[in-house]
Amino acid sequence: MIEIRELGLRRGGFSLAGIDLKVxxxxxxxxxxxxxxxxxxLVESVLGVHQPDTGRVLVDGQxxxxxxPEQRGFSYVPQDLALFPHLGVHDNIAFxxxxxxxxVDVERTVSEVAGWxxxxxxxxxxxIGNLSGGEKQRVALARALVAAPRALxxxxxxxxLDSALRVELYRELGExxxxxxxxxxxxxxxxxxxxxxxxxxxxxxxxxxxxVGAPDEVYRHPATVDVARLLxxxxxxxxxxxxxxxxxxxxxxRAAGMDIQGQARPGCPAGRRLRLGIRAHHxxxxxxxxxxxxxxxxxxxxxxxxxxxRAGRRVLEVVPTSFPNQILHVAVSDxxxxxxxxxxxxxxxxxxxxxxxxxxEEAAPEVPVSREPQ
Amino acid sequence: MRSWFEGxxxxxxxxxxxxxxxxxxxxxxxxxxxxxxxxxxxxxVLQAIRLSVVTASVAALLALVLAxxxxxxxxxxEFPGRSALECFLVIPTIMSPMALGVxxxxxxxxxxxxxxxxxxxxxxFEVPGxxxxxFFVAFALEVLILRATFSSQSPRLxxxxxxxxxxxxxxxxxxxxxxARNGVLAAxxxxxxxxxxxxxxxxxxAGAVKGKTETMPISIYLSLATVSLDRAVALSIVLTIxxxxxxxxxxxxxxxxxx
Lengths: 374, 259
Description:
heterodimer; A: alpha+beta; Rossmann fold; CATH 2.40.50.140; 2 domains; six-stranded mixed sheet; five-stranded antiparallel sheet; 20 strands; B: mainly alpha; MetI-like fold; 14 helices
């Protein structure tokens, strides 16, 4: 188990502050955050490349904060892979082993790991220069695995690959991790990667951890507006608390000229400033209902401003007719019951209360939400 | 069809080659093609060539031994005043060779330098002094080249090597040094070329003593001093050929690889 306690580090104008994380034995822990959030700095501090100014790093209860990188037993696949350009494929993969093991053992381990990753046919290549992106990725992963690390650290490892290859490597990495029962810490800006690979995830923004939890939990209940924005909650509306809703446990919030019913927030005073979020694909287009007849809660008439095509779907940019300054994004699948969406047309949309997210803008800054692994 | 930019490049290359051809043709046409070979038969010329090659090789090698860790440290360590230190170390490249020679003489005329001169090894007017002068001439150049070479390498390669079990020395030896091969070669070759052609610093500290401290540039100077212009030109051509052969030999042994 890797524990990061109160880790702080300043580099130039950037700082990591009070990082507290726990990576359990055998789990894949993903740190997701936008570019420039400090993810690489965090990983390299845990690896011992950078010495933290404050805090500690513990491995299985042992303090390794002052240990040099070579004594920590970690392996690292950085974003640029850092394959050694003067060595061939075999020597890159065998790099960690060549120092200390008999040749026979080295060859056996290298062949085994190369076989797992399907790159045994590349071992004779004397240069890494003409490998494809996916091959380089596998060689870097093999090099890290041959070292038999206590934990594997991956920094945006699939960044430069096309999506098909990425999916293939997700599967391979998952299998390898299970086979080797390997503790893994992966940092990425791609939240999809976090959901596919992570047993748990932390959201990091601007050098701070804002939320920790199971990926599904974090997705469904982002702790802050920034987390929600990172996890692609496309619609984040300024809102204020109006009062209790028609049904027990609900409340009305006013946003963009609409009275929207959502979950009640106990103790919330009237006029409290909030943010109300909903994902584009959670907004329902009410077909067959004539605009203007929306008597149900959370149904509003909107006008289409723009139709943006995406793969297999369309994203409509709409504005409530009651408040044309507020743009909402609504995702609809292509061929949505033969409906045609045209600019300037009006339609009725519903904001299902169960999908509404509420963030208190007047509350004190969020503290990390720690959850034990499930 | 070539763009105007390619045209400019072509003209620049053409002018460069023409300048070099004029330079060589001026010498060869003055003495005739056979003259350099005839001076090669003279014993004192062979001695001067030998002394030039030996002193330049030893000086460039010693400079490399010191410039390699210095250049590496300047590239890797971040500390206040690093740029100032770098400027300080390359003073010999911006200093006049004659001024460098004077500084070296003064160094051995007082303090620890005087003690070394009196009790350990004589430098002034001796071969070790020539090597020392050429060392300073080569060192600063080699530091500059090696600092640039190591700076161009991603430090992440070393980080990964460390995480794969290497100590800092092993990471340097197994990763950074092999990758710096071309830079090390360039540093040595340029340091050597600078040393073998040095006249100012070498002659100032070692004097121009015929048959004793007579390198090829000093030999050329002595020929000019005795108004033997034919011999001076022939020696110049010989020095150019020797330097070129030495350069090619080092180049072929440590041939740059496409890393």
